[in-house]
Structures are given as C-alpha cells and as structure tokens.
Automatic annotation (TrEMBL):
InterPro entries: Knr4/Smi1-like_sf (IPR037883)
Lineage: Bacteria, Bacillati, Actinomycetota, Actinomycetes, Micrococcales
Protein name: SMI1/KNR4 family protein
Source superkingdom: Bacteria
Length: 179
C-alpha cells in the first residue's frame, strides 16, 4: 500500500539520515518498520494525506526529524498521559487503549491539528509495528497492525485534507538548523 501512494514534489533525501534509518533500534532491538522505511525513501520529509507531518531521521543540520521533533512530541505525549493517569482521566485511553500502552507509544507523525500517529514497539510482527492515533492527545484509537494496514483509516481521519491534497504524499523542504 505504501508503494501505491501518489507523491507530489521531489523528496529532499539528502536531508534524511540513511544511516539512522538503518541503524536505529527500539527497545526490542529491532529497527524502523519496513513500511515506514519505504515511505521515507519515497518522500523524505512529507505530509501524508494533506494533514500528517511524517518525521524521518534527519541528518545533522536539519530540524524536525525523528530524533528531534518526533522525540519531543513523544515526550510531550507521555507527560500528558502521565498527568491524565494521575488525575484519573480514564477517558484519555479510550476507546481502545490503556495506561500501560500510553507509556510505550512512540510518535512518528503529527497532524497540523494536534493529533498524533504512534507506534507500539511491543507489538512487532513481521517487522511491522501496530499504529495508534491519539486525537488531541486525549484518546487512543487502534488503527492497524502496521502502517500499511492503518493507511485507509489514516486517510479517513484526514477527511477533507486528504481530498484537497495534491497527492497522498506531499514532499516538504526540511528546515535547516545551521543557518
């Protein structure tokens, strides 16, 4: 399914850290899911379905990469859910999640309206990770056992943004951090 997504623009693959794309390891000792690696190789820094900013590993000198923006958003997500658990806001893990899941999830894409696409690194199957959505960092919805399985739901969640997008994947120019 990832290979069938339409692409607009030319990816700036020179800004992607191919080394980190291949060498990063999650707690299970395994790397990025194959579907994510294919998406990054096709579109680099991109917007998925007109809404979701996908964060690939970035080379030094570039902002908004996996190790920068996605790591920051993962920390923010986890802090929000830790606070919610302390406050007893059980609705935050509904409809499909629980508090232990919230502590494991890792952001890999973030919408322009404050929603997150996340992986559960404890669910690896055939190299792929389960995909979840946190709407406004206030709900947990299971989208699929892999990015490929989740894409139809992600497109549905994107609504009019996907309908108005020039392509499923819009290549973006990554921001430089070194001037």
């Amino acid at each position: 399914m990832v290979d069938q997504l339409s692409v607009a623009g030319v990816p700036d693959l020179g800004a992607v850290s191919v080394e980190l794309l291949g060498s990063h390891r999650f707690e299970d000792g395994e790397g990025f899911p194959p579907s994510y690696r294919r998406l990054v190789r096709r579109a680099g820094f991109c917007r998925l379905f007109g809404l979701w900013l996908v964060y690939p590993p970035a080379r030094d000198g570039y902002a908004d990469g996996w190790q920068h923006r996605a790591a920051h958003l993962t920390g923010r997500f986890r802090a929000s859910y830790q606070d919610g658990q302390v406050e007893g806001f059980d609705w935050m893990v509904e409809p499909d999640g629980d508090w232990s899941l919230a502590g494991r999830l890792v952001v890999f894409a973030y919408s322009e309206n404050g929603d997150a696409l996340l992986w559960d690194p404890s669910t690896r199957r055939d190299g792929e990770l389960a995909v979840w959505c946190s709407t406004g960092l206030n709900a947990l919805t299971f989208l699929g056992a892999s990015l490929t399985d989740a894409l139809p739901r992600v497109r549905e969640l994107s609504g009019p943004f996907a309908d108005d997008a020039s392509a499923d994947l819009e290549c973006l120019a990554p921001a430089r951090t070194d001037g």
